[in-house]
Specification:
five-stranded antiparallel sheet, 15 strands
Length: about 375
């Protein structure tokens, strides 16, 4: 186990070069609560919103009306049915938009037989709202969100919006953890960004409970949802989330510090403090943990498919290779876009060369394995 969080944080702050960006945040970090910091970036208020519980819902705004109710769908994807001759249709929730009485979009939610019902008979987690994601849009965006079920997952989100030609389109904003996206006015311009986390960090170097994920920021641009996390305009907000992450780790009772370090280094990289964070990580990571730092030296095509474990074919016994956590982290962060190849190289990890060497070793070991043991 690595050193206490306070030691990690103190070491990091001591190494940072003072800057006009960091001085206010560092001076206030020890005194401001998460709640007071969050007030700097207010939550966007919906123009209108409603939850569905079996009765038709209608939202209206300046000629735009959005109704949410059950409807007949002929799409096998919506109905989760095989596309064959027997499929006809199913009842599913549909958010239908009209402008001036003319139908302009439909967003399909879950099929009726897949709705989650609580013990009191209430439908869980079906919401429709009108938000102004773009401050210059003539009409707001309609957002349908619904819970898909699962221990850690998920809220599915669909967004109906106009493009530059005033034509409506539906954007699938994907599935996110927890309560779904946060809608925050990060530019203080009356619009709203969608804020979430990079869940590829979950389970990668630690369990779900011990994993920390860096921030992701999305902005609606021209009828498309764009990842703008690396935009310098959001640096102050990312620093705020960095302090919140450090505070959350300080209060947590985690078992695997590497799960925290992975997300923390990524967040530090987002605010331009990679070098200092990397040195702190090198002095702090748990060298005993093998979570997320192994790969199989035998290509999966040669694995014995009869020995599947928990639905997954295992790497042949004795063929897993353990790499140091810093190398595994550098490869992971580069692959996820938190580090550039030149940054990884400067840290001592030439990603293309490492991967080329690994592929050559896997090819050689796989050839030998096939000769010794039939597939």
């Amino acid at each position: 186990m690595g050193p206490p969080t306070q030691r990690l944080k103190s070491a990091t702050l001591a190494r940072r070069r003072p800057s006009v960006w960091l001085i206010p945040c560092l001076l206030l970090a020890s005194t401001l609560s998460v709640r007071s910091e969050a007030a700097e970036f207010p939550r966007s208020s919906p123009i209108a919103q409603a939850s569905y519980n079996g009765n038709r819902v209608i939202l209206k705004y300046h000629g735009l009306s959005v109704s949410l109710d059950k409807g007949e769908s002929h799409d096998p994807l919506v109905c989760h049915s095989p596309k064959d001759a027997s499929f006809v249709s199913c009842l599913a929730l549909a958010a239908r938009g009209k402008v001036g009485g003319k139908a302009v979009f439909v967003m399909w939610g879950p099929a009726s037989d897949e709705l989650e019902i609580d013990p009191a008979g209430n439908i869980i987690g079906i919401n429709v709202a009108l938000y102004r994601l773009s401050p210059t849009a003539a009409l707001p965006q309609a957002i349908l969100s619904y819970w898909t079920g699962g221990a850690h997952c998920c809220i599915s989100t669909l967004i109906a919006t106009q493009n530059r030609n005033r034509a409506w389109r539906v954007i699938d904003a994907g599935q996110v953890d927890g309560d779904g996206y946060e809608f925050l006015d990060l530019r203080h311009n009356g619009g709203s960004e969608l804020v979430d986390a990079d869940y590829s960090f979950n389970y990668h170097f630690a369990s779900y409970a011990d994993s920390f994920a860096p921030t992701c920021i999305f902005q609606l641009q021209g009828g498309h949802l764009k990842n703008v996390t690396h935009d310098p305009a959001y640096r102050a907000f990312l620093i705020q989330r960095l302090h919140e992450m450090e505070d959350r780790e300080k209060r947590s009772d985690h078992q695997y510090i590497n799960g925290y370090l992975a997300g923390w280094v990524a967040q530090e990289a987002l605010v331009g403090e990679l070098d200092n964070a990397w040195q702190t990580m090198l002095a702090s990571y748990d060298r005993r943990s093998t979570l997320g730092v192994t790969y199989c030296r035998i290509d999966e095509s040669a694995w014995k498919k009869t020995d599947w474990t928990y639905g997954y074919p295992p790497c042949p016994q004795g063929q897993e290779v353990i790499v140091p956590f810093p190398e595994a982290l550098a490869l992971f962060l580069t692959g996820r876009g938190y580090l550039t190849r030149s940054q990884s190289r400067a840290l001592g990890y030439d990603v293309p060369k490492i991967m080329a060497k690994r592929r050559a070793a896997i090819e050689e070991a796989t050839t030998e394995y096939k000769q010794l043991k039939p597939p």
